[in-house]
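Re: the 81-residue chain
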Amino acid sequence: MDQKVSDISEKLFRRKYEQLIEREKEVARHLAERTHISRNTAKEFDEQLTFGQRLADRVATLGVPGLSSQSLVLYCFYGFC
């Protein structure tokens, strides 16, 4: 263990590094290394979208007049895509 991590744990949590729970140890390590703790939740959300949801987002972004996501779904449903 690095002295910097030990100092941070005692200063921030007022306990020795060995006494910290795993999450607190992770925070102390990230602070010592000066790295990000958070994750990119927007990216994780985007990775879980279905094809239809991504397509609807593209249509909404384009803002094509008269073309709603519902009309696009119906258009594709009836085999025109």
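The two ends are 59 Å apart (CA to CA).
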